[in-house]
Amino acid sequence: MIDIAITHVFLISALLFCVGFIGVLARRNTLFMLMSLEVMLNAVGLAFVGAGSLWQQADGQIMFILILTLAAAEVAIGLALLIRMQHQRHNVDVDGLSKLRG
Amino acid sequence: MTALTLLPFFPLFSFLVLIVLSKRLSWHIATAVALTGIGLSFIASIVVIQSLNVSASSGEGLTQSLWTWFMLGEHEVRFAFYVDQLTAVMIAVVSGVGFLIHGFAAAYMRDDENYSRFMAYMNLFICAMLLLVLAENLVLLYLGWEGVGLCSFLLIGFWYKDPDNAIAARKAFIVTRIGDTLLALGLFYLFMETNTLNIQEILAQQQTSPLSDEAAWWIALLLLGGAVGKSAQLPLHTWLPDAMAGPTPVSALIHAATMVTAGVYLIARMQGVYLLAPEILNLVAWVGCLTLLIAGIAALAQEDIKRVLAYSTMSQIGYMMLGLGAGANVAAVTHLMTHAFFKALLFLGAGAIILAVHHQQNIFKMGGLLKRMPLISILFLIGIAALIAFPGTSGFVSKEAIIAELWQSKTAGPVFWWLAVVGAFITSVYSFRLVFITFFGPYRAEHELLPQRHGLIVLPLVILALLALGGGYIPTHLEQVFSAPVASQHGPAWLHTVAIIAPLLGIGVAYLLYFPKTESSPAVPGTSSVYRFSHNGLGFDSTYNALVVKPFVWLANINRKDVIDLLVQLISWNTFTWHSAMKAAQSGRLRWYAATLGLGTALLLLGVIL
């Protein structure tokens, strides 16, 4: 098993997080925003796993499983909203929702 | 003393009845209510004066305390009346002459749609004036003082639909307000120095521990400020001629017989304080003297019959002030009384003439009235005779008494005597100018005279004419109130002769200048610049306009948006600005929110790391 330097793990994690975040900001299509959010969640999960292996603790992996569950729940709600949006507005442009402001 | 307690409240009650029921009352009922109120006051005055004469031969007055008004620190301010011989003269004049004028007004204002309101204001005025003269303390006096100011405003502006009348009413109110403020300051100072506002206590204190010279000087000056405002003396006299905008009975009641004498009453009442400040007494004499001359000169060039009489009122009150300043108190107050008689007669006579010539007030559009309305004309002439102090009339008794004491007075002197005699000369010139233009020569009005047959027009005039002739001999016992006259020895013997001849000389001059030479020659007002200057009241109005009114209006215009308020508005501006900035952030754009969230987190992290 090749040892990977912990710095590299965190660099990859931070990179993935930024890619996801930029995706959220740049995309107007809600489906792509949800996918970018998944990328961000996985970046965080990678950081947890890396940290767990660094300190030889199981906590990191437990947190990753928690994040997976959370992501599943989030996607379930997000996709449901997406379908309602497609039904009502016949598009999935998130900027079109700005009239929902208070 | 029930009579004394109720004295000022009869007119108050009739005022309330009239103002509440107002237009629901017919002319007869409204007249009956108004006249009953004043009549009862007059009867009560007679009763009070009788018991005063019986009980108080020593010079002590009657006091009647009604209730405690309020507490001023330790000092109790009572709602209480005080009557001595000075008050007795005042209440008799106010209610008596007031009653006669009310009778005349009932006929004069008969066809006015707001007749009840008019009579109500007149009654309220009598009530306020009675409170003023009956007041035991200066606070109550101030209540009456403001009350007559209010009624004067309401009555001058009675025909308020004409903007000119409303302007005249406002002018009277504002100009007298300047005097009222000075009076209030005087009262504050007086309370600070003596710790009481009870008039008799203040006067008694002056015997034992008098005011310091400086305090007496300031208090006397401030009270004089109040008096010149109310009594239309220099320099606050400009409101009186304009006040003629009111109905003629109002001019008779307020601007001749009673209200304008309030200032004279105040100075006479506070004589004890004035004696401590001889410089101010001298100033009082100067104010009176200058006013009587200036008003006399202005009266020479007036074309409105009521304005001539208004200026003559100012000039006669000038005589009273001059008398008070010179220490001739008894004569001054007697002149106050006789002036009330003959000036009410003159104004009511003018009112009767104005009614007859279809509300024309310009004397150059009258003429020849002696033949056409002989009774009114003769009554008017009696008033004129008293005004110029023609020997044998009441005006002669009082005015000659004032003039006689001037020469020897410590606070006046020969200069004042000469000026007063010149004033008497001018008085008779302008009086007979009025007489010759109005009653002689051809008839110049456009319409025929309206016949006058109402008894209420003539009867008050006849009674007032009798009083104008014999009123000077009514016993007043005023010497019980005032210390003895200053002059012990008399001046040169020719003084009396000159003082008596001066008015007669004036008649002669007026005859030469103004008597219509031929039956057809038209009388015309003058056109020279001197005449115009005098016609406009010697430029006081335009001077005040330029010096006070214009700058004030200018400032008010600048301040229209309220400069101080801008500071307060800064707070609301601040809130509004931040509110709209925050509102812009609430855009509803999801990606914008996410970006802000990211930026905020990044900044926080940066803060933690650094």
Automatic annotation (TrEMBL), chain A:
Catalysis performed (reactions): a quinone + NADH + 5 H(+)(in) = a quinol + NAD(+) + 4 H(+)(out)
Annotated localization: Cell membrane; Membrane
First-tier enzyme category under EC: translocase
Membrane topology, record value: Multi-pass membrane protein
Example GO molecular function: NADH dehydrogenase (quinone) (non-electrogenic) activity
Primary subcellular site in the record, as a coarse category: membrane
One protein family per Pfam: Oxidored_q2
One biological process term in Gene Ontology: ATP synthesis coupled electron transport
InterPro entries xref list: NADH_UbQ_OxRdtase_chain4L/K, NUOK/Mnh_C1-like
Assigned EC number: 7.1.1.-
GO cellular component labels: NADH dehydrogenase complex; plasma membrane
Residue ranges crossing the lipid bilayer per the database entry: 6-25, 32-55, 61-83
Keywords tagged on the record: Cell membrane, Membrane, NAD, Oxidoreductase, Quinone, Translocase, Transmembrane, Transmembrane helix, Transport, Ubiquinone
Family label: Belongs to the complex I subunit 4L family.
Biological function: NDH-1 shuttles electrons from NADH, via FMN and iron-sulfur (Fe-S) centers, to quinones in the respiratory chain. The immediate electron acceptor for the enzyme in this species is believed to be ubiquinone. Couples the redox reaction to proton translocation (for every two electrons transferred, four hydrogen ions are translocated across the cytoplasmic membrane), and thus conserves the redox energy in a proton gradient.
Oligomeric form and interacting partners: NDH-1 is composed of 14 different subunits. Subunits NuoA, H, J, K, L, M, N constitute the membrane sector of the complex.
NCBIfam families: PRK05715.1-1, PRK05715.1-2
Protein name listed in UniProt: NADH-quinone oxidoreductase subunit K
Species per Swiss-Prot/TrEMBL record: Thalassotalea litorea
The gene coding this protein: nuoK
